[in-house]
Design goal:
Blueprint: E1 13-16, H1 30-43, E2 48-50, H2 62-76, E3 82-86, H3 91-104, E4 108-111, H4 121-132, E5 139-143, H5 145-148, H6 154-158, E6 166-171, H7 177-186, E7 191-194, H8 200-206, E8 210-213, H9 220-231, H10 235-249, H11 257-268, H12 284-299
Parallel strand pairs: 1-8, 2-3, 3-4, 4-5, 5-6, 6-7, 7-8
Helix pairs in contact: 1-2, 2-3, 3-4, 9-10, 11-12
Amino acid sequence: MERFPEMQVNWTGVFPAVATQMNEDGSIDYKMTGEQIEALIDAGVDGLVMLGSVGENTALDLEEKIAVLKLAVEITNKRIPVLSGVAETTTRGAIAYAKKCEELGADGLMLLPGMIYTADPRENIAHFRAVANETRLPIMIYNNPGAYRVDIKPEEFNQLADVPNLVAIKESSGDPRRVTDIYNACGDRFVLFCGMDDLVMETQVLGVVGWISGFTDAFPAESVALWKLLSEGKYAEALKIYRWFTPVLHMDVHAKLVQYIKLAQAMTGVGKEYVRAPRLSLVGKEREQISAIIQKTIDTRPSL
């Protein structure tokens, strides 16, 4: 495939990790998924990441992933970038899906390590290179060692700097120091995004230019307002929103983030709480505790 000497993207701002809306029986509610996408665009988000962790990528069949991505591309109609998560279990599968995303008109990919197998650095770098070499789409590398057991170190990103369409990094290690370490290792070679909701203010100060957020799905206006204040350097005003928001933002880094985000969507009236097995909707004391935090956040919403 013909390669390009460099590739630049204008990815900045709030990119919600869009939830795939489900019916109670676990089937996809395409109508509500579409309505959710339109509502997020109306709220002023800067891009969309479909079929990430919150989008329940690994619980969907290939045909369903294609249908969800096609829906997003059609509804968005180039108003903002649409990225698709790529979370296949093999490099071969990731390449095939990346090619399908290109056919469907996606604007980019968010590429995860191969699922299930825990690759070592050599294998992981080979995976990213192989997928990038088979698509013209710009790619964001997703580093989330807590969830996927593979930790891409700053110096390892530098080994990928010669691949022109590896353009961005979603940094979700949980250590804000990584932002500075990546800049020191790689300069400004990669566009850096915060990938953990409860580190957005800390990492924006350190140089990330975008935020891939789960709880934007439930609180889009507040998320956009927070990022705008941060971008304008109005940190005292941003801190007021951030402190209000943080109790729910902490839920973004929990193993049940999908259930928590979808419950928040249901409680704010912008989605359904249904998830696909093996995930199950919350019950009992856990449901009471999580609902109480979300309800307090709703009841104390700041005036924007």
